[in-house]
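Hi everyone,

Forwarding the result from last night's run.
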Amino acid sequence: MNDIKITPEIVKEHGLTEAEYDRIVSAMGREPNYTELGIYSVMWSEHCSYKSSRFHLKKLPTEAPWVICGPGENAGVIDIGDGQAVIFKMESHNHPSYIEPYQGAATGVGGILRDVFTMGARPVANMNALRFGEPSHPKTKHLLAGVVEGIGGYGNCVGVPTVGGETNFDPSYNGNILVNAMTVGLADKDKIFYSAAAGVGNPVVYVGSKTGRDGIHGATMASAEFTEDSEEKRPTVQVGDPFTEKLLIEACLELMATDAIIAIQDMGAAGLTSSSVEMASKGGVGFELNLDKVPQREANMTPYEMCLSESQERMLMVLKPGREEMAQAIFEKWELDFAVIGEITDTGKLTLTFGGDIVGDMPIASLVEDAPEYERPYTPTPTRPTADVPAVNDLNKAVMDMVGGPHLCSRRWIWEQYDHMVMGDTIGRPGGDAAVVRVHGTDKALAISTDVSPRYCFANPVEGGRQAVAETWRNITAVGGMPLAITNCLNFGNPERKDIMGQFVGCLEGMGEACRALDYPIVSGNVSLYNETNGSGILPTPAIGGVGILKNADARATINFKAEGDTILLIGETKDELGASLYQKQLLGEDSGMPPHVDLTIERRNGDFVRALIENGQVSTCHDLSDGGLIAGLADMAIAGSMGASVTLNDDQPLHVSLFSETQARYLISADDATAEDIRREAKDAGIPVTILGKTGGKCLNVNDGTIDIAMSDLTSAHRDWMPNFMKNAS
């Protein structure tokens, strides 16, 4: 295969420009052969090199006293005290999931699990952020069914609970769905494993499953936009085996309990190529690999195929000399492949042999440091004029349509397919503001949330970026957690378009501002560009995954009303902010105006106040307000608590503004009368707006003496039935 002549057409097929190819020739001092061209193509792909985003990613805040390891490793690591660390990351598997939804989503889960346990953590929770086209699109139901089945099939079998996430619909995802997977793991602070190879002569070891032909050019495919023939790319989608992954987790953790491992890396995008190159690069060493020794499940595999395969459930390790036999015994006990396939050299090169011949010889530095970095031109998103959003005629119908529609309805149909209780430490089940998972054997718990409002990011990327970060911070705060750090999955269209690059730059600017203001650094992440089909891009979707800590898991708050006759309070001020709102989009079919402003000083002040109430035991019912505004929050709390509420709104604004405005930094809480009065007084003393809205109880959701009056039975049925009815007869 290395005899294939490198032509301009072949270079283009590998996703490289003429200038990039010339750069490769210059770095090597000669023309690459076919295998070498394939290796450069994946290492210099958008997916692996971040060539369009690196310049801007450097601007993000990544440090804090509790950050042990920020971006650059397999996952981020934060200190949670008591000698324990949390390791977490979020990644995309968008293109594969559109082509083959079950395997695309399943292998997305498998890949992110490996990113976390390769650093020494036992995975304790999975999350996901899913975005599909409009419900009426002919593919939406099929894609949703396949993705959910794939996530459940892999996560359930591997034995890690899927504890929450989000699912949204919008026409911009009709031809390019988003499947973002997040894993959170726990490790001992003094037993973190990194990927930097060291020690000339030390053995390089391959473990896990055998290498096949699935997933070849997966990284390249993920770095290009879709066209009409995208379904022909099915062979580039990997095939996962969760049972093997479970064995791999246990075998790796068993070996990690010894002192045998010097470095370890999972084989993710670009498989053996990326894992070996990244390990050698970080260690400043060379690798010599004998491809004849790579375990193979298919006959007559070429060096090109072995290097670029993205077969799943595989890892690469550097072991201390003399530990090979002990390590091999562990992996064979778990019925996994184990092979010494090479050694570390001092050449600074990736040298590949096959059949006794050298089939690849490339400078490691050129594969990594020399990868192109583009400061692409961009056009900032124009500022929208203010929108005057009118009232609808029938508020009762409006509430029912929103709460019982695709955007706000219950996601129970989805999360019931996930085992969210396996491992026995899940405290907060899906459906709340944040998932809550106990730190095993302690009183502590982790609070985990994923969120972003893409329509805000489209309307004003800077505000949208701020809001995405602030929303996860608020979700974690609403259960009583102290937010610590975030991971992200930056999903955008074609960065070669100035308007798309403007969205990217704007969102990152807003994200950075929010992270700094909230002491909430970014410790890991993923960039997914070229999310377009035939030139039509997705909404800018910088999905944020947040992690926080509850010192006392028993003091957490939940969204459900707890007792009849409690007082309902609104923390925060409501403004006329219906631009880019769900009310405007769903009920009026419009998208205009500016999204709500995110005042980060107020966000922090209000959130810190609410968290203190929860930590002090004054509040056990809390819900942050976002999509759908106040009425959506009230409906969520009433449905979750199986009881109604009666509220009166007299804030001198039109009623539809009070109900549906999406003003940020707001929380709904409920408490008994005496506690509510204490809270009102404390808030007033702290200069925090607080409004007593009304009382819990009854069988209806009642606003302003019957202006809105909806039976809880009707509201609950509408909320719970939309998705099961929509997914009937899904194939």
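The first strand starts at residue 67 and ends at 69.

Cheers,
N.
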